[in-house]
Design the sequence.
């Protein structure tokens, strides 16, 4: 079992809709979670970090964490074509704090 | 301020050759990470530096891979006797310290022919 699992997609949503991206992780005691956006051929760009259960909002982005279910999600409100990218979920390892595990990413397509 | 920079942006080499990839982190960031990303996959941890020392090299795939950070700033990832399977995007990230978020550089696309 991989440490971080994401649906590869593509997830297609119309412009203006809410895009919901999901991630599950295997380490029950993980504490630090991150969402990155990666455009094709570019490097990952940090969108949000979340450390506590519940929701964290930043502009059009909301990260949701449920440690009991080992689940973290990213909601993008009012999706724009420029949001079309691959979204990577990352989790800090608890047996090696130096190491971050990344999922394979979910490709999001926002259609005009 | 300036972000993480990496050079070269692209490197094409022949099987068996030696390559060096350079990373210049954000000024003042003490933590530096190297990752490798293959197409359709997430970044895979290679090595972590805190200051000048390689605090964790557990992700290096074999002894052909080596990295240094002699003055606690710029880091070089060195790959000896390159193989076609080494072809990937090599990403560097830096962080103010280990407990903070990481910021990635633009990456070096390595192609081994």
Sequence:
């Amino acid at each position: 079992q991989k440490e971080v699992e994401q649906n590869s997609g593509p997830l297609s949503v119309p412009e203006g809709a809410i895009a919901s991206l999901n991630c599950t992780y295997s380490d029950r005691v993980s504490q630090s979670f991150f969402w990155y956006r990666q455009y094709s051929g570019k490097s990952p760009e940090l969108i949000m970090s979340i450390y506590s259960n519940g929701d964290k909002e930043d502009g059009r982005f909301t990260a949701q964490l449920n440690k009991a279910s080992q689940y973290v999600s990213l909601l993008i409100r009012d999706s724009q074509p420029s949001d079309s990218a691959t979204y990577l979920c990352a989790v800090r390892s608890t047996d090696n704090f130096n190491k971050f595990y990344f999922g394979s990413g979910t490709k999001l397509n926002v259609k005009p | 301020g300036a972000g993480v920079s990496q050079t070269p942006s692209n490197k094409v080499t022949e099987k068996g050759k030696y390559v060096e990839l350079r990373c210049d982190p954000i000024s003042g960031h003490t933590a530096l990470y190297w990752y490798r990303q293959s197409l359709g996959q997430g970044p895979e941890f290679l090595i972590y530096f805190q200051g000048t020392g390689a605090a964790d090299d557990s992700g290096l795939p074999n002894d052909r891979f080596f990295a240094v950070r002699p003055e606690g700033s710029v880091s070089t990832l060195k790959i000896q006797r390159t193989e076609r399977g080494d072809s990937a995007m090599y990403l560097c990230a830096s962080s103010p310290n280990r407990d903070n978020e990481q910021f990635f550089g633009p990456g070096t696309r390595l192609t081994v022919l």
User: Anything to note?
Assistant: The CA atoms of residues 9 and 108 of chain B lie 4 Å apart.
